[in-house]
């Protein structure tokens, strides 16, 4: 397991905005999870019209081969195969008339489907 921090322990490959961290921490606490151990898992899976899509869920603890990023007290777990697709990304939370949700700003994306739910690198 490797760890990246905003403090420079290792160059962060995943950034998290303060807004996204606050929202995720609030949801984690609402689920009764210990925010010192639990975290948000960011992963990439096959699917969507462009071929790949993002997935997120809360996990009680990281897997042994995960890379762990900590930003604004939020722990983010990324498995090795997903890291290849999301390296350099920023996780944000957006609210608005179209609905609120987490959004991944990924510099590796070369195209997205029309609805924005899937991507290709």
Automatic annotation (TrEMBL):
Provide any one GO MF term from the record. Answer: 2 iron, 2 sulfur cluster binding
Q: Ranges for the Core domain?
A: 14-117
Xref: Pfam families:
Fe-S_biosyn
UniProt xrefs under SUPFAM superfamilies? HesB-like domain
Q: Name one GO biological process term.
A: iron-sulfur cluster assembly
Could you name the domain of life of the organism this protein comes from?
Archaea
PROSITE patterns documented for this protein: HESB (PS01152)
Among PANTHER family, the record links this protein to: IRON-SULFUR CLUSTER ASSEMBLY 2 HOMOLOG, MITOCHONDRIAL
Q: Mind telling me what this protein is named? A: Iron-sulfur cluster assembly protein
Taxonomic lineage of the native organism: Archaea, Methanobacteriati, Methanobacteriota, Stenosarchaea group, Halobacteria
